[in-house]
Amino acid sequence: MFLINFLKNILEFFYDITFSYGWSIILLSLATQIIMLPLFWIADKIQDLEKARKDRMQPALDSIKNVQNKQEKYHYTREIYRKNNYSPFYSLTGLVGLLIQIPFFLAAYWLLLDYYPLIGISFGPISDLSQPDELLLIAGISINILPFLMTFANLLAAYFYTKNQDKSEKIQLVVIAIVFLVLLYNLSAALVLFWTMNNIFAIGKNWFLLRIKSTKADLILSNSFSKLLKILTSFWKEYGFVVFLLMFSVFPLLSIYFENIEELYLTQSSILSLIIVILIFTLGITIAIKFLVKNNYKTQILVFTGLSLFFLFGHFRNLLAAMGLEGKLAIFFLGLVFLLLPAIIIYLTLKTKRNLKALSNVISILSLCLFSIVILRIMSFGISNRQTLLHNNSQTTKLISANKEQLPDIYYIILDGYASSQILEEDFNFDNSEFEDYLIEKDFYIASNSRSNYMNTFLSLGSTFNMNYINFLSDSLPKGSTNRKIPYDMVLNGNVMKYLKDKGYKTVHFGSVFGGTKQNIYADYNYKYSSYMGEFTTNFLHTTILSPLVSHFAGKEYRKTILYTFDHLTKLKNIEDPKFIFAHIVSPHPPYVFDENGEEIPKSVNLDNSWNKNEKRFYIDQLKFLNKKVRILTEEILNISENSVIIIQSDHGPAFLEEDDKNASPEFLEERSEIFNAIYMNSSNSNNKNLYKDISSVNTFRAVFNTIFDEDFKILEDSTYYSTYKNPYDFTNITTTLDSLKISKKE
Amino acid sequence: MLFLYIDPGTGSLLISLLIGFIMTITFSIRNFYYKVIHFFAGKEYKGTNDFSGELVFFSEGKNYWNVFYPVLDVLIKHNKRFVYLTADREDPGLQIDSEYCSSHYLGNTNQAFFVLNKLKAKMCITTTPQLDILNWKRSKNVDHYCYLSHAPMDIHANKKFSFDYYDSALCGNDFHIANLRQLERDRNSRKKILMKTGCTYYDLKNEGANEQKEHILIAPTWGDRSFFVEHGELLLEKLLEHKHRVLYRPHPQSWISEKELLSIISSKFGKNELFEIDKRVDNVHALSKAKVLITDSTSGIIYDVAFLQKIPIIAVDFEWDDGGYESSDLENPPSTKYLLEDFGRTITENEIYNIHNIIGEVSNVKMTEEIIDKHIFNFQNAGSVAAKQILSIFKGLK
């Protein structure tokens, strides 16, 4: 990411000088070659050293060439390697030259593939740098010329580079050239131009490297370099195993990150800090154990075992659950694996006097493999999804800006999973009228038949903040996508936010405990209970051996975050008016952390966030406490100014009736879609003329803006769409189902 | 689902782990292939491998008994305790009846190595080369490994890296010592204790009887290390031309592998009354009749014939592919060459034409004690010397 920005800055710098993106790309290509020059020089030296080492061993290897017995020959070869301190992996150093180019190539790829300033920019015969060049038209088929030019340059560079090398290396480079042709053929001319020039400059670079070879400066530098390399190799020999352990230690985290890469929007920073914590933790443990056992192999085995057990605990428990093992049996198995197994391994490792090098090697290779797999998967996702993400960003409608006057502060409070009064009465036997009466007395309008438009938070909030239905996403996203970035972009920087910013509003975001609304980089102000670990961290820790502790700890943090939000919503005096204040309070949604007086609830209650039928009374208690907090909040807000807008809304209802994804009963759909929706606009009752009891959340801001800004937004038809978590963009319109259920109930 | 919004990804993690394991196995398979084979070769020996603090001998089989016996005999006579391990059920060592010796059969060679790789002992003495190169690994719990020469030959014909991981070697002659030192130097391998020992099996051998000696004995080795395959016919022609009585004794392996060569030889020369093929199992008869021996320069019998039968020897020097043998790394020629300077001749392939004159020259050379002392340490007294040397090393170990 750093490299992409770096290249972008260089590109823009050249553009400022040349006023031509075409020339800028060529200069960028030259610049990268110059930047990489020292790296290439190092790669060259490493290759020379490797070659010298091989040359040294060659006579010995030649002398056993004709040994007939394969096993004997294998052992002799190993012995020659052993005597020369050689590892077959050293032969990979030939790839160093290629490897150092990869980050630059990927950065250029990501930068130039869809760099929007290039759209429609011509350069010489190329009409649009953001598209394939299509320079030749034969029989109605357009052919891209630039890629062939690139391949030619590529082969030319390869020819000069491998002049003194053997055939296999030549073949290697030709194959790579062809692969590049296939890969880049249909991509933007900008990218192909960059790579073509790169290859042309590479010829010059190789000539330069050859030229400086064996000059005095080169010799002095190579000398100090080989000394440095010697220090590094001896360091690697002693501490290389630590690097493998570090790789392994971040593998489980990265694996979860990859699994949720589409959902985890805006949480990269917390992942980075988690990675740092894990690395420091692993390093510390390793140093401590090394100090105790004084043997690298044993240290590696012990730390590896420890890390495995630590990080795989939750996964193992999930696995047992998936196999139907729960309760005491599961605890027995967990105990077996997580107490007995480590005890045996520690005992054997400490006791043995055998050379554990082979085992240590296996661990190193395994760590490297696991790390590479997850990194490759993350990178491949980055490449394949970048385009769709960027292009969909522009799916917002233009809005007319309004005239300036005395504008009210707007408070938008989402109470996640708050049931409608009707559902509370029917399903929970709970009469919420006392709370509603209070709000009505305070001039709130309560939309008693209000529904959300979607069943899941990110879709529901996305459409509310977009002031539009978002069904179009099922067409523009790949089938089966679970992408949450686009809906959240709509929440954090969608139509509502843009409209209000145009109006001169300052936007204030209260960070929730949950990924999508954890913070808002587009908001003018972010408020957040600072030490909250965050949803991802909590979840990650749930897969580790700390799982039992995490629930308890997370519960406390959860409480604090919600209380912090209520306490600080009205303490924003130093922010100039008008302000839009958004708080997503993930409650009364489970986990249950408040009783009706706001005290902690007994530890025996499960602290996960699933809807468990046996826990309905905790839900009601938590809801009662929220009612109290909302009352206090309302008083505080109205104390500051009666000229405020307060929207208290749920994003969707509870899900106690959910059976499974496939069989959604009408009763569940009703429970889930009916929402609590109370809106206060100024003290005058006439202001509620745009509100009606069936208003759904998508129309919230249309109605509010029509009222307070005298806008003329069309009120959309109120519909509700069902989709599952696993397949969120596969929508079914359930409005008539819900309506007919309502009618039948009345009858 | 635990937390609604995040998938812990157990399934994906499992898949990653699986791929990781498969990749690891693929990468490591070459390393483990021979180990696995070795492991499944199994273990027959059920007894202990714990001989902590003891002096342990390991023999690959009964063929080496005459190398070990002179040493063990001295140890028993001096009431010194030792353990004798063997990979041969018929090893006479298993019959040793002495309170100072415990002997054990470990199974076949591979099974024996399985036990030996975990051996616990203070010192281990063996005639098996290539420790820590092939399947026999140095055990961490053996303080000292000692190589006992089983032939007076020096190390040219030994396989690569035969002695690099021994702590000491009981050597046959000065050439042997010089060559080992050269390899230590070139390979930067461990500096061994090298003892002037000699060859123990001569302690058991008598010098040959003096019969009427008038035959030229041709006893080559076999295969591509033998000159006879290519130049045998020429040699026989030249000898018979000059009316020498010729006794051709093929290598035992030739009767199996070189039947064609043997049938050509017997059809061509079988009718000549001066020519005889020796088919006897042991070589006593052949040696007793020979006045000169013609063989290959790498042949193992040169020393025995020279020291015990005192028959002059003509060795045909022959270019052979020594890749895979210590010879390829050695500066000096094989020590047999020095012996033949004193007691015979080394000739080139071309000199076969002149064989009659050469026989004339070497026939008169006499073996002396001086020559023996120069080419072998402690002739017919090596057993007690070896025993003393072993005990002195053993005592020096902590």
TrEMBL record, chain A:
Entry's transmembrane regions: 20-43, 89-112, 135-161, 173-195, 238-258, 270-289, 301-323, 329-350, 362-383
GO BP term, example: protein transport
Domain of life: Bacteria
Membrane topology (UniProt): Multi-pass membrane protein
Alphabetic keyword roster: Cell membrane, Chaperone, Coiled coil, Membrane, Protein transport, Transmembrane, Transmembrane helix, Transport
Pfam families attached to this UniProt entry: 60KD_IMP
Gene Ontology MF, one: membrane insertase activity
Subcellular location: Cell membrane; Membrane
Presence of the UniProt keyword Chaperone in the record: yes
Residues forming coiled coils: 616-643
This protein's record includes keyword Hydrolase: no
Domain called Membrane insertase YidC/Oxa/ALB C-terminal: residue spans: 21-209
Alphabetized InterPro entries for the sequence: Alkaline_phosphatase_core_sf (IPR017850), YidC/ALB3/OXA1/COX18 (IPR001708), YidC/Oxa/ALB_C (IPR028055), YidC_ALB_C (IPR047196)
Annotated family: Belongs to the OXA1/ALB3/YidC family.
Descriptive protein name: YidC/Oxa1 family membrane protein insertase
Lineage: Bacteria, Pseudomonadati, Bacteroidota, Flavobacteriia, Flavobacteriales
From TrEMBL, chain B:
Keywords of the record: Membrane, Transferase, Transmembrane, Transmembrane helix
Protein name: CDP-glycerol:poly(Glycerophosphate) glycerophosphotransferase
Transmembrane segments: 12-33
Keyword Endoplasmic reticulum belongs to the record: no
Xref: Pfam families: Glyphos_transf (PF04464)
GO molecular function, one term: CDP-glycerol glycerophosphotransferase activity
Domain of life where this protein originates: Bacteria
A single cellular component GO annotation: membrane
InterPro entries named among the record's database cross-references: Glycerophosphate_synth, TagF_C
